[in-house]
């Protein structure tokens, strides 16, 4: 294999794609910069023109993941249509779909141990995704008097955690089995939780 060195067309993105492939195969901690360079078909020295180290490369993969994730969440929310509840549930399903379709990004975002405090661009990208879910949560609770309304940031965070749990247990590999599809588990969990908060009427 001929090394392309510094003459690679879009070396920065090629390295990100290489990192994503390696993360999918080995996990965020399972590869070296030299391996990423090899997959991208460049010399190891060429990597340092764009990234100070492996953590910075993973952070860029995670940032791009959050951008994709936020766009998918926004698309799923669809400005609250056809109803606040349907749009809210759609954002949960988008979480599952993202984890399945973009496993390398997902692992870079949630399993790499990156510090949001040390990565401002990453923190801002992550906030875009949270903002969609918080907006959906606020819209869902509009009908409740303000003094009785649960904080949208709180219950949207709970739904995020529930979605993450369903992904980790039932949507990523054979570690645990359920007789129900992950989407059904999440939808049922969201319904039970929202009824407990008084955001939905009880089942009749």
TrEMBL record:
InterPro entries: Homeodomain-like_sf (IPR009057), HTH-type_TetR-like_transc_reg (IPR050109), HTH_TetR (IPR001647), MT1864/Rv1816-like_C (IPR025996), Tet_transcr_reg_TetR-rel_C_sf (IPR036271)
This protein's record includes keyword NADP: no
Domain HTH tetR-type: 9-69
Keywords: DNA-binding, Transcription, Transcription regulation
GO molecular function, one term: DNA-binding transcription factor activity
Domain of life per record: Bacteria
Positions of the DNA-binding region: 32-51
Gene3D superfamilies: Tetracycline Repressor, domain 2
Pfam families: TetR_C_33 (PF13305), TetR_N (PF00440)
The name this protein goes by in its record: TetR/AcrR family transcriptional regulator
Species in which this protein is naturally found: Cereibacter changlensis
Highest classification ranks of the organism: Bacteria, Pseudomonadati, Pseudomonadota, Alphaproteobacteria, Rhodobacterales
